[in-house]
């Protein structure tokens, strides 16, 4: 690139580089017009980015210094011998505000003491503290038994004490905590049904809570929403709130840069134009990826995962809509054998898909040392090939009008939903050093991949059955179950919801302490976040194929609109 020369836009000088970005974003606008969000608005919201780059750097320094001070203040608050109940609430807020990685040490110190003495003192503080404690311990991977709720149950520990029904706040916490259940935990089951029967008058206040329990919400989205709620909470810590806002805006600006990057990749690739039917949903795809890994240090991971996601969506459309069965068989075989000579036989649009796939596969492994890279690439190719094989099976089922049994359907469908490919790539992208054993293990579809994929698929089916039917996709788990058992649609949906719940409980146990030393906490979080994203995206219909108003709003608040921070200005003076 040439050295920056002055250009003029609206009478104000800007540098070449920045102008390039604007042009780029205008082009990007066409890509994302389906959801009416223009990246360009980013620049309108924050004009200083364009015109006062130096001021921005200065501002960044000020914010970083401020954040350091605020962190120290919050640290003191955690350590300052405050009441146990207060300490737990503070940690809960830190976590919900998306700041737990900043206070990792403090949080683990407090929680390990609690888990060592089985939360004895916490139980004395009441239901709310006990429930928060339980939720936090499970969430951070400490051992804790459902028995800590015994004191709140009748003599046989069958039912919760009726007197607790007045304790709304405690019940809300209990409700959230009950979603951390392991399979077969009876007390947790009765906790959930007890907490669900909350008195009618407060129903709307908890409408949001009962919508999706805390444990099933996408953490970064929760952080954004909770910042607004926390501000209004009694006894909130202004330092913590201020820190959360600074942190959110900082991470958001990092995500924005990555999104621009992803936009230029997609434009260069030109797949969207070649395959005109493809869902140009880069923004949603990136949003999805942020839901899986939002931590600012993992930009490379997000960049590559976005590519992976876009390829999945595009090639999925090739199989669903565009390709003839012969073409699809050929394509599947060529990928399966990685038969480079065979490519000439493919139609043009499939050649482009192949080449994009090849680039992405190599790009994903690029950060590894040569030996590891050579080791990893065949595995990555294999998971893609496995994905396409299930796409092909479904395409054939569809062509034949065949409705499989639920079991047969799920054996393919929990792979064709692509969680396997996403998490396999995530594993490689989060690691500097891979191990062959773990790659092998991941390839064999272990629970840590299977369960979130299953949830992903079932949530998807619950939400998209009618839309997908219209588009001509294969039948979903709902139709399969109805045909197999003669159940009504309502019964089938209930059954599928139950399968989702069971999978969540299995997943909770899977993730509990020490069970998976070979996987990093980040990877485990990513895997559970995949299930959370599925719950979120499909909660109000199919968020990916037909993003609802609500989801568009979420994308805006997460990726486009920064949080105005009055406190900033005060501190700047
Ligand atoms: C449970 O969820 C509700 C609604 O989001 C929230 O107000 C409450 O603080 C949560 N409690 C716990 C323990 O997470
Ligand atoms: C796949 O990508 C690698 C690395 O970029 C390249 O060397 C190779 O030629 C590509 N293969 C095909 C068939 O395009
Ligand atoms: C998908 O279904 C086909 C046909 O029922 C079956 O042969 C195949 O094993 C299934 N694939 C997977 C990955 O289970």
UniProtKB/TrEMBL annotation:
<feature type="domain" description="Terpene synthase N-terminal">
    <location>
        <begin position="62"/>
        <end position="196"/>
    </location>
</feature>
<dbReference type="InterPro" id="IPR036965">
    <property type="entry name" value="Terpene_synth_N_sf"/>
</dbReference>
<keyword id="KW-0479">Metal-binding</keyword>
<keyword id="KW-1133">Transmembrane helix</keyword>
<dbReference type="InterPro" id="IPR008949">
    <property type="entry name" value="Isoprenoid_synthase_dom_sf"/>
</dbReference>
<keyword id="KW-0812">Transmembrane</keyword>
<dbReference type="InterPro" id="IPR005630">
    <property type="entry name" value="Terpene_synthase_metal-bd"/>
</dbReference>
<feature type="domain" description="Terpene synthase metal-binding">
    <location>
        <begin position="269"/>
        <end position="506"/>
    </location>
</feature>
<dbReference type="GO" id="GO:0000287">
    <property type="term" value="F:magnesium ion binding"/>
</dbReference>
<dbReference type="InterPro" id="IPR034741">
    <property type="entry name" value="Terpene_cyclase-like_1_C"/>
</dbReference>
<dbReference type="InterPro" id="IPR050148">
    <property type="entry name" value="Terpene_synthase-like"/>
</dbReference>
<protein>
    <submittedName>
        <fullName>Uncharacterized protein</fullName>
    </submittedName>
</protein>
<dbReference type="Pfam" id="PF01397">
    <property type="entry name" value="Terpene_synth"/>
</dbReference>
<dbReference type="GO" id="GO:0016102">
    <property type="term" value="P:diterpenoid biosynthetic process"/>
</dbReference>
<dbReference type="InterPro" id="IPR001906">
    <property type="entry name" value="Terpene_synth_N"/>
</dbReference>
<dbReference type="InterPro" id="IPR044814">
    <property type="entry name" value="Terpene_cyclase_plant_C1"/>
</dbReference>
<dbReference type="Pfam" id="PF03936">
    <property type="entry name" value="Terpene_synth_C"/>
</dbReference>
<keyword id="KW-0460">Magnesium</keyword>
<dbReference type="GO" id="GO:0010333">
    <property type="term" value="F:terpene synthase activity"/>
</dbReference>
<dbReference type="InterPro" id="IPR008930">
    <property type="entry name" value="Terpenoid_cyclase/PrenylTrfase"/>
</dbReference>
<keyword id="KW-0472">Membrane</keyword>
<feature type="transmembrane region" description="Helical">
    <location>
        <begin position="37"/>
        <end position="57"/>
    </location>
</feature>
């Amino acid at each position: 690139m040439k050295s920056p020369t002055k250009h003029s836009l609206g009478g104000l000088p800007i540098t070449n580089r920045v102008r390039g970005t604007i042009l780029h974003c205008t082009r990007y606008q066409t890509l994302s017009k389906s959801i009416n969000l223009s990246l360009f608005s980013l620049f309108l919201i924050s004009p200083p980015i364009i015109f006062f780059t130096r001021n921005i750097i200065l501002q960044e320094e000020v914010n970083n210094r401020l954040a350091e001070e605020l962190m120290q203040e919050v640290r003191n608050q955690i350590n300052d011998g405050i009441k146990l109940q207060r300490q737990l609430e503070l940690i809960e807020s830190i976590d919900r505000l998306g700041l737990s990685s900043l206070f990792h040490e403090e949080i683990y110190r407090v929680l390990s003491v609690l888990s060592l003495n089985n939360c004895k003192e916490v139980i004395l503080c009441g239901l709310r503290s006990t429930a928060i404690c339980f939720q936090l311990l499970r969430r951070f991977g400490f051992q804790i038994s459902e028995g800590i709720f015994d004191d709140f149950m009748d003599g046989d520990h069958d039912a919760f004490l009726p007197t607790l029904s007045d304790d709304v706040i405690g019940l809300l916490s209990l409700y959230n905590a009950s979603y951390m259940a392991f399979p077969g935990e009876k007390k947790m089951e009765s906790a959930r049904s007890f907490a669900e029967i909350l008195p009618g008058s407060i129903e709307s206040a908890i409408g949001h809570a009962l919508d999706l329990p805390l444990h099933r919400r996408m953490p970064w989205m929760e952080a954004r929403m909770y910042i607004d709620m926390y501000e209004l909470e009694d006894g909130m810590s202004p330092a913590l709130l201020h820190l959360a806002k600074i942190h959110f805006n900082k991470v958001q600006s990092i995500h924005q840069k990555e999104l621009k990057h992803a936009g230029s990749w997609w434009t260069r690739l030109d797949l969207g134009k070649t395959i005109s039917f493809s869902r140009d949903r880069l923004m949603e795809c990136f949003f999805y990826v942020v839901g899986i890994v939002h931590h600012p240090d993992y930009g490379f991971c997000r960049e590559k995962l976005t590519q992976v996601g876009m390829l999945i969506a595009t090639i999925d459309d090739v199989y669903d809509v565009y390709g003839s069965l012969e073409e699809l068989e050929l394509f599947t075989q060529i990928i399966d054998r990685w038969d480079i000579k065979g490519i000439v036989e493919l139609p043009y649009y499939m050649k482009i898909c192949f080449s994009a796939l090849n680039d992405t596969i190599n790009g994903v492994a690029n950060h590894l040392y040569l030996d590891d890279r050579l080791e990893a690439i065949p595995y990555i190719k294999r998971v893609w090939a496995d994905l396409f094989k299930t796409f092909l099976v479904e395409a054939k089922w569809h062509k034949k009008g065949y409705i499989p049994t639920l079991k047969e359907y799920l054996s393919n469908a929990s792979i064709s939903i692509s969680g396997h490919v996403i998490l396999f790539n995530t594993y490689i992208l989060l690691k500097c050093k891979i191990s062959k054993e773990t790659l092998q293990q991941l390839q064999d579809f272990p629970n840590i991949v299977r369960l979130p994929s299953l949830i992903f698929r079932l949530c998807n089916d619950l939400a998209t059955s009618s839309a997908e039917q219209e588009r001509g996709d294969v039948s979903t788990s709902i139709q399969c179950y109805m045909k197999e058992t003669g159940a009504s649609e309502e019964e089938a949906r209930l059954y599928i919801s139950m399968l989702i719940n069971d999978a969540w409980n299995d997943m909770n146990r899977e993730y509990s302490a020490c069970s998976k030393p070979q996987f990093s906490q980040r990877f485990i979080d990513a895997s559970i976040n995949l299930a959370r994203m599925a719950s979120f995206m499909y909660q109000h219909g199919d968020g990916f194929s037909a993003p609802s108003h609500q989801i568009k709003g979420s994308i805006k608040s997460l990726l486009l609109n920064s949080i105005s921070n009055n406190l900033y200005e005060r501190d700047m003076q």
